[in-house]
Amino acid sequence: MIDRECLCEKALEMRARAYTPYSHFQVGAALLCKDGSVYTGCNIENAAYTPSNCAERTAFFKAVSDGKREFAAIAIAGGAETAKDLDYCVPCGVCRQVMREFCDGSFEVILAKTPKDYRVFTLEELLPMGFGPENLDKKMVYMADEKL
Asked: DSSP assignment, residue 128?
């Protein structure tokens, strides 16, 4: 199984691939699947702004499109394009919600400055009382449809 330092290194490498002509804020992510495979992503901006995609979601979407559904951890590294030293880069709310779709609260979110300088949080710490698939009671959804 890949260790945290190696996962952080991959996230830092992906940061260099980010397409950020507008914000100049580059983010890389490395997603560890429970089977040991790793999917990477970078943020990709768009002139229309809203079609942009974060590094974390890029990694998740690549993994899911390959049939992966079980995840252990994600490493995230980000900062200004010209930064010599990075700070910890936390995932945005949309990315936290995508993580919650596929992961429970014990999923590890690793924020990396360097391969050896990182902090580890659980998804529960970053998204307390998160809303996930188990919150959708099929009976309630059916009842709501009946009333329409």
From this structure: T
| Torsion (CA) 84, 89, 92, 97 in degrees, nearest 10 | 140
First to last CA, the chain: 50
pLDDT digit string, tens, across residues 69-78: 999 999 999 9
Contact 127, 99 (CB under 8 A): yes
Lowest mean pLDDT among 38-47, 48-57, 98-107, 139-148: 139-148
Indicate yes or no: pTM above 0.85. Answer: yes
Q: Which residues are catalytic?
A: 56
Give residue 37's identity as a one-letter amino acid code: S
Supply 53's token pair: 């995609």
Q: How far is it, in rounded angstroms, from Cα 96 to Cα 130? A: 9
